[in-house]
């Protein structure tokens, strides 16, 4: 009984210590502290996705340690994002399967450039990233497509944030 009580007391004292050193972001030191993200450009056939992607990129970057989202490009690095390719594929593999005939994959490719607004130094240029999502459109096709687009752009926003905030990548 005494050992159990001692162990519980030990865990109670140790548990809060684990959260003391938590900090947002990757913990990597960046050579900049402010970033401006202009609206993404859409050079693809993706339907009106640039505002959604820009919003998600800004939200991901705002959660990074020691990084501030700048309202203008002055005294900040500039992250330019262009949606360069949008593809949709039918996911059916069997001509007899009518359920899979309504399934599809969407793939999006973006090109990112990060440069200094002050010096013009380019951190990376036209870095290509892509990702895809799969959807089963058992009901309305357009509704299903509308619902999966945020998933696709969020996956891309995660990848973009990772290459911006992890200088060793």
Any descriptors?
169 residues, alpha/beta, Double Stranded RNA Binding Domain, 6-stranded mixed beta sheet
Give the overall form. Answer: flat
CATH fold title: Double Stranded RNA Binding Domain
Question: Helix- and strand-based class?
Answer: alpha/beta
CATH H-level homologous superfamily name: Lipoprotein like domain
**Largest β sheet strand count, sense and barrel closure:** 6 strands, mixed
Compute the CA-based radius of gyration. 22 Å
Kindly provide the name of the CATH class: Alpha Beta
Domain module tally: 1
Number of helices: 3
- C-alpha end-to-end distance: 52 Å
Query: How helix-rich are the residues, as a percent range?
Result: 25-40%
- Average of per-residue pLDDT values: 83
Poorly predicted runs of 5 or more residues: 20-26
Q: SSE string, helix = H, strand = E?
A: HEEHEEEEH
- Quaternary: single chain
CATH-level-2 architecture = 2-Layer Sandwich
Number of DSSP strand runs = 6
Beta-strand residue percentage: 25-35%
Structural description of this entry:
- There is one protein chain.
- The protein is of the alpha/beta class and 169 residues long.
- It has a single domain (36-165), classed as Double Stranded RNA Binding Domain (2-Layer Sandwich).
- Helices cover 30% and strands 30% of the residues.
- The protein has helices spanning 2-14, 50-62, 141-165; strands at 34-36, 41-42, 68-69, 77-90, 103-116, 122-136.
- Strands 1, 2, 3, 4, 5 and 6 form a 6-stranded mixed β-sheet that branches.
- A hairpin with a 5-residue loop joins β5 (103-116) and β6.
- α2 runs parallel beside α3.
- The protein is flat.
- It starts with a helix and ends with a helix.
